[in-house]
Structure formats: C-alpha cells, structure tokens
C-alpha cells in the first residue's frame, strides 16, 4: 500500500522487520518461531527475498548466523522468539561476542503493556543479553524499526564488530497497523563514531622500530581476519622478512604453508612460535588481544620485547600487556600505511640480524616443530586425521570445529592458506558450535568443501541439527575424532589430578552410523589408519550427501606443546615426559 | 587512587543499567554514583567515584567510552576540579548535646534544616572528606540516619564537558 501521491509504502511493523532485512541485503536468516513472533513469521511467509532456515534449537540459529559472518565478514541474522527462544540464543550471542563477530539477533518479546508483569514467555532479554552484546535495542514504536535495524547492522559490522540484539514486543508488529516505510541510507549517531585510520606519528615511530629490529615477531589475531587485512599483512611481512605467528583466531591471516609462518602461539602454540616470542626484541601485534591463553603469566611475558600494538579497540591495548607504541585504527589501513613507509624508507630491515634470527628459528623448528609420535599400535593418532584432511582438501576447505583436543589438533595441523576458512569458538570455547557453524557456511558457499572437526562429546551438544541438514540439503562432512572421552578435560586430569578421570569418560555412545542414517545421511566408521585416506576421499566425493565419519583415535593422546601454568611463553611441556 | 569520572550519555532507557552493569561485570568498584538530566534533555550526566590503579582506571574510561549510549567520558581527577556532595544527617539532640551539635555544625558550615524537641537534621555540602570529617567530629552524638548524594564534580577553569 502506498501513501497517496507518493512512492512511500505503508507497512506493518512485522513487514518492516522483513523488508529492512531485505534492504540490508540479507538472503538467509536462521531462526525458530513462537508466539511473540507470529506476525513476523506471517510476513516472512508472504515474500521470497529473505529466506528463513528453520533450525532445531535456537543456539544453532545463532551459530549459523555467526559462522556466516566469520566466513564473509558481514553480519549474520538470527530470529528467535521470546522467553525460552531468547535464552536458548544466549550461548550463541556470547560466543559471537567473545570473538568479536558481527551478528544481529532479533528476539520476540511479549506485548509492551505486559512487560514487567511476568507474562507468559517473558524474559528481560535486554538485561540478560547486556553483558554479551555490543549493543541492544528495544523497539518502542513500530515506525522506528527501519532505523533501528540500520543502526544494528552498522554497529555490528563497524569498529570492533560484535552482536547486536533487537527486542521486538509483539504489539510493535501488529499486521493491521501500518506506517510509512523508508529504509535509511545512512546512520548518524553522535555517541558512536568508529575510528577509520591510525595516528600517522605513531605509525612512523612504529615503522622505525620495525626497521631497527633484530629479533622481531609479527603476532596477529582475529582482527586481521575480520578486518580483511590479510593481504596487507602478507605484503608487509614479506617486505620485512619477519616471522609471523597467529593466534587461534588469526589462523589463515598469513599463509600457513609459507616459510615465514612459524605456527600458532600460546598455550598450545608451536615450540618455535613460543620460543621466538620469548626471545623477541620487537613484537608487532595486529588485531590480537594478548589473551591469557596466549601470554601465559603476564609478568614473565617476553622480557626483552618492545610491543607495538595495532587494534581498532583502544580497550584491547595495554589491557594485559603494556604497549610501547599503541596504534588505534583498522588493521587494513594502518598496515597499508606501514607498507608505504617501509617502501619509501631509505633504511632497510637489518638483513644480518634477521639472517641470524631465522637461523635460530629454523633450529627451533628442526628441534621440536610440528611433530607427534606414532607408535606401532593400530590406533590412529588424531593429528594424522587432520593431516589427512589437509591433504585431501588441499588446504582449501572451510574447516569448522567444536571445542577440545580435536580443535587444537585442527588448529595445529591443518594448513590454512586463506583467511575466513578456519571457523571456531576461541574466546568462549563453546562445545556445540561446530556442526551449526559448518551448516551456516555450507548454506552460503554451496560449492565449497566444508568440514566439521568434532569430538564425540561436542557433537552431541547440537546433534539434532542433522535434521536441519536433511531439510535444507547441507552436505557437510563431519569428522568425529572419537576418543571415547572428553579428551581435553581428561588431559588436564592426567596432568594435574593424577589421572583421576572425574566425569570425563563418555559411556553409552550412540552408534553414530545408525544415528546419522536415521536422519537420512551417510555414516562411515573408520578404525584403521590404512583405511583413512580412502574413506575420506570417498566422503568428499559424495558431493551432495552429508557424511559423518566416526573415526576411532587414540584415547590417551595429549595436545602438545602445552605451556606450563604461570610460566613464561617458553615454558612448555613438549610431550608427556619432556619439558623445556 | 580515588578517581571521579564524569560521563555524558544519551538520556535513554537502559543507559544507566549499561554503565552500572559494566562496573559489576568487569569487577570495577563503585564508591558513589549520581546521575541526572542536564540542560539538554537528551543528555544525562553521570558521575562515578571509583578506586583503582592507573591501569584499571584507564580500562574503566576506555570501556565506558565503548558503550554506545555514552557520548563523552572524562576523568576529572586528572585535572583541577571541584567536587561536591550533599549529606543530610539526623541526630539525637537533647540536653546539652543540642548546643554541642549546633557548634560543630557551625564550624563545618552546616545548616540545621529540621528540628524536633529531640532531633536535629543537619545538611552539609562539600567534598566527601569534609562530610567524613563532620561525622567523626560529631564524637559521641548519636546518629540516627545518614543520607549522602554521592559525588558530583566539574572541572575548574574554562574546560567543559559538553557535546
Ligand atoms: C581449548 C582452547 C584452547 C585455546 N588455546 C589457544 C592457544 O594455544 N593459542 C591461542 O592463540 N588461542 C587459544 N585459544 C583461544 C583464546 O581463548 C582466544 O580466543 C584467542 O587467543 C584470542 O585471539 P585474538 O587475540 O586473535 O583475539 P580475538 O578474540 O580474535 O580479538 C580480535 C582483536 O582484534 C581487534 N580487531 C577487530 N577488528 C579489527 C580491525 N579491523 N583492525 C584492528 N583490530 C581489530 C579486536 O578489537 C580484538 O582486540 C584457545 C581456546 C580454546 C577453547
Ligand atoms: C558447552 C561447554 N561445556 C563444557 C566445556 C568444557 N570442555 C572443554 S573441552 C571439553 C571436552 C570436549 O570433548 P570432545 O568434544 O569429545 O573433544 P575432545 O577433547 O575429546 O577432542 C569440555 C567438556 C565447554 N568448552 N563447553
């Protein structure tokens, strides 16, 4: 319906929600209906631009939206009803928040006049979500919906990205009440102006330090991935011939097979990366937040290093480790400026010092880098499975993961050459993330290989989504590294509790092959390494089928290296018996 | 060290709870908190006093700045400033205590703003330590009730906190 004599349309609040998503360029939204959202679901039914994907649990909807965002850099959208729908979404919102992932979550709410009266399916979603969102909105007038949706996307995607919740009371969507609809092109918020470039003086100072460094390390994180800065990072690193290490969130920011890549750093980082950090005289941190899983004890952190820290969020700088040169700005723009400065500079990087530094690093790499032991037993090592995955997919697949030992093995042994392909929950460490994440990616990249690396513990936290995969034809490949235990918990119990395996053993596992078959998918059981390659190739050759590979791996394997608690970066266990 | 942080924020529902939530969520301490609208009805001014080392206070101001509803943040303790707090204190005042309380009140330039045959209610305005000093100066007088407004502050000189 148009306003007479104009092209301005009259829409109900429910229609505005859907139309605004369309105007935002959204193709898929992930959700689950309920009473407070029925008007919105009816509006969805009557159009085709925005397609809704019906999950089996709201947590999965948020993870699907989140994984779309991790793979594309654009905000994913989830739609959940009030009360239990909203609370089921909280884990997914927190997961996105901890990893700074853009997402817009629309939650239904009871009628506005009932708010505060303990109405049916009422929860204070603004209050519940507040600590785990970048911002949240409550719709007070239907005519505000277009501008709120625009603001929500703007806030979610700009600056340091994060999830935004829009709480919509049911009476804001009444079908019979129509208002003029116009989607705002721009947002102006006096209290929110994300920074667009770094301070040139600081960048110059930092570049001087880079050109004088003798033992430099470039340490980069999720900010390079979400900030679309891997091209600039790669160029600068090559110009300087500096070693590069990535956080768990930063993998793929620099090519994993490049000679200059020294692996992940931190608790389960490579020997050479942690040694290089500890001995560095200069650390260039880009889009990384000196997490406690990276630094180990802050007072022993990299005693000889000066720290240059580039981050879009000033609060990430000097939070745990004091920066000598803080640079607030988007990684992409700041790195580009550095590249120009290095290219234009008369001074060259110190080639002799770097030569000696690389010799040292290569020696570390030789000594302990990237090796695990295989023994004579038939039992497969989980690391072998990941190496095989890397081989079979040429390092080109999207790999999602759950949380536990399998996640660390995937991070250590899959060689990511491209950004946005490694999709895992780092900050919150959410078991149950892997399968819905793989689905969210596959939905949007139907022609790419998408593998979910999981454990028999994690997969059971969202296994119901096998049903969604059936409904929407999502032929992801699930690699379940089955060690019959909550391996990561068990490892800590081995190391710190004299192997008292309190509640870390999974009795009564289902027959996964039969289980997935009952959902209409293909199941495979692999017990021997000699069968692995054939089975995996077969699984990936089945282009339009979901394949679940139940792979028996050594239940006693530990993840190494592992930093010694409260030590420095270089204090590590290298195997069950060796320590640095 | 004690800091007085002034925050200019959108006068929106939920804005205050974001600020308070931030403090509890991140384990920052709040000594006192005041908030009220400004001359511009769309803005409120919030003042929070907190105790923390430089690193913590730097994080507090950075995290406050990140809140979408927050327009500006200033740590008043970084420069010269004036701070004021209002206290109303109800005291048992009978016999010779009446005169004694009156004297102490005068020394501190307090005002007696309500009187009954057995009580005085005193109002005192000043920096928080002056209010503390008054309470200790009361000595043996028996305090029935104390209410303090929390601190508000403003920078000295021409510096202003505005849009
Ligand atoms: C079982 C388990 C084990 C783990 N072990 C390890 C380990 O060994 N090593 C490890 O590294 N991690 C490990 N983690 C992950 C860890 O908990 C953190 O999630 C991770 O270290 C944080 O990565 P990050 O520093 O890259 O920060 P992210 O959480 O990715 O944060 C990104 C940073 O970049 C900034 N940023 C965002 N956009 C931009 C932009 N455009 N420009 C500039 N800056 C930007 C943000 O402000 C933020 O500071 C583990 C997690 C689990 C669950
Ligand atoms: C939702 C949730 N609950 C608990 C944990 C704690 N936790 C971390 S790893 C882990 C074990 C994971 O087991 P599994 O998925 O089988 O993987 P494995 O470590 O055996 O490879 C647990 C329980 C968590 N990360 N997430």
UniProtKB/TrEMBL annotation, chain A:
GO cellular component labels: acetolactate synthase complex
Domain Thiamine pyrophosphate enzyme central, residue spans: 203-337
EC number: 2.2.1.6
Species: Marinobacterium stanieri
Cofactor binding comment, as recorded: Binds 1 Mg(2+) ion per subunit. Binds 1 thiamine pyrophosphate per subunit.
Catalysed reactions, semicolon-separated: 2 pyruvate + H(+) = (2S)-2-acetolactate + CO2
Protein name (record): Acetolactate synthase
UniProt cofactor(s): Mg(2+); thiamine diphosphate
Keyword annotations: Amino-acid biosynthesis, Branched-chain amino acid biosynthesis, FAD, Flavoprotein, Magnesium, Metal-binding, Thiamine pyrophosphate, Transferase
Any single GO BP term: isoleucine biosynthetic process
Higher taxonomy: Bacteria, Pseudomonadati, Pseudomonadota, Gammaproteobacteria, Oceanospirillales
SUPFAM superfamilies (UniProt xref): DHS-like NAD/FAD-binding domain, Thiamin diphosphate-binding fold (THDP-binding)
UniProtKB/TrEMBL annotation, chain B:
Coiled-coil features, chain-numbered ranges: none
Record carries keyword Nucleotide-binding: no
GO biological process terms held by the UniProt record: isoleucine biosynthetic process; L-valine biosynthetic process
Cellular-component GO terms for this entry: cytosol
Gene3D superfamilies according to UniProt: 3.30.70.260, ACT-like. Chain A, domain 2
Keywords, in A-Z order: Amino-acid biosynthesis, Branched-chain amino acid biosynthesis, Transferase
NCBIfam families: acolac_sm, PRK11895.1
Name assigned to this protein: Acetolactate synthase small subunit
């Amino acid at each position: 319906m148009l306003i007479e004599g104009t092209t301005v349309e009259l829409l109900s609040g429910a229609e505005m929600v859907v139309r605004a998503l369309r105007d935002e360029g959204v193709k898929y939204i992930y959700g689950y209906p309920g009473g407070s959202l029925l008007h919105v679901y009816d509006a969805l039914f009557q159009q085709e631009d925005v397609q809704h994907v019906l999950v089996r649990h709201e947590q999965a909807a948020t993870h699907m939206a989140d994984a779309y965002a991790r793979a594309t850099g654009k905000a994913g959208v989830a739609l959940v009803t009030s009360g239990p729908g909203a609370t089921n979404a909280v884990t997914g919102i927190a997961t996105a928040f901890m990893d700074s992932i853009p997402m817009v979550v629309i939650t239904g709410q009871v009628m506005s006049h009932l708010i505060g009266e303990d109405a049916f399916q009422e929860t204070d979603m603004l209050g519940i979500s507040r600590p785990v969102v970048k911002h949240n909105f409550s719709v007070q007038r239907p005519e505000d919906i277009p501008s709120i949706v625009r603001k929500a996307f703007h806030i979610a995607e700009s600056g340091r990205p994060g999830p935004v919740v829009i709480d919509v009371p049911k009476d804001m969507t009444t079908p019979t009440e129509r208002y003029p609809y116009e989607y705002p092109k721009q947002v102006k918020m006096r209290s929110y102006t994300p920074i667009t470039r770094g301070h040139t003086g600081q960048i110059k100072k930092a570049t001087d330090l880079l050109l004088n460094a003798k033992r430099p390390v470039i340490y980069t994180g999720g900010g390079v991935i979400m900030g679309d800065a891997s091209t600039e990072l790669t160029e600068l690193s090559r110009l300087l011939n500096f070693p590069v290490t990535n956080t768990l969130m930063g993998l793929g920011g620099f090519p994993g097979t490049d000679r200059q890549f020294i692996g992940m750093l931190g608790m389960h980082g490579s020997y050479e990366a942690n040694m290089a950090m500890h001995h560095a005289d200069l650390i260039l941190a880009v889009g990384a937040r000196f997490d406690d899983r990276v630094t180990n004890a802050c007072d022993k952190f990299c005693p000889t290093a000066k720290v240059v820290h580039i981050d879009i969020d000033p609060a990430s700088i000097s939070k745990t480790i004091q920066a000598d040169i803080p640079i607030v700005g988007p990684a992409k723009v700041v790195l580009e400026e550095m590249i120009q400065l290095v290219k234009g500079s008369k001074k060259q990087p110190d080639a002799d010092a770097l030569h000696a530094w690389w010799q040292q690093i290569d020696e570390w790499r030789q000594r302990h880098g990237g090796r695990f032991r295989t023994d004579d037993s038939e039992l497969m090592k989980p690391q072998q499975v990941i190496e095989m995955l890397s081989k079979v997919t040429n390092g080109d697949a999207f790999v999602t993961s759950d949380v536990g030992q399998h996640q660390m093995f995937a991070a250590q042994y899959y060689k990511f050459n491209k950004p946005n392909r490694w999709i895992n929950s780092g900050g919150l460490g959410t078991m149950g993330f892997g399968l819905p994440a793989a689905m969210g990616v596959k939905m949007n990249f139907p022609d790419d290989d998408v593998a979910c690396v999981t454990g028999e513990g994690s997969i059971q936290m969202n296994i119901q989504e096998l049903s969604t995969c059936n409904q929407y034809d999502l032929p992801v490949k699930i690699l379940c590294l089955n060690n019959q235990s909550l391996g990561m918990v068990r490892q800590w119990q081995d190391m710190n509790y004299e192997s008292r395996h309190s509640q870390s053993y999974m009795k009564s596992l289902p027959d996964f092959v039969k289980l997935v078959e009952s959902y209409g998918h293909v199941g495979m059981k692999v017990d021997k390494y000699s069968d692995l390659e054939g089975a995996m190739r077969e699984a990936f050759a089945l282009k339009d089928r979901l394949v679940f590979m139940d792979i028996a791996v050594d239940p006693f394997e530990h993840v190494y290296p592992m930093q010694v608690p409260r030590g420095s970066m270089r204090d590590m266990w290298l195997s069950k018996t060796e320590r640095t | 060290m004690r800091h007085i942080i002034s925050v200019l924020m959108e006068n929106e529902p939920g804005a205050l709870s974001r600020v308070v939530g931030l403090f509890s969520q991140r384990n920052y301490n709040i000594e006192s908190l005041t908030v009220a609208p400004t001359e511009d009805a769309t803005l409120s001014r919030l003042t929070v006093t907190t105790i923390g080392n430089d690193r913590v206070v730097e994080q507090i101001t950075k995290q406050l700045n990140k809140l979408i509803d927050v327009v500006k943040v200033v740590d008043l303790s970084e420069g010269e400033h004036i701070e004021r707090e209002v206290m109303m204190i109800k005291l048992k005042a009978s016999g010779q205590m009446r005169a004694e309380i009156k004297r102490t009140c005068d020394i501190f330039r307090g005002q007696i703003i309500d009187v009954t045959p057995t009580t005085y209610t005193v109002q005192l305005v000043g920096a928080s330590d002056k209010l503390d000093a008054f309470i200790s100066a009361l000595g043996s007088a028996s305090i029935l009730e104390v209410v303090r407004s929390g601190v508000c502050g403003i920078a000295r000189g021409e510096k202003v906190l505005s849009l």
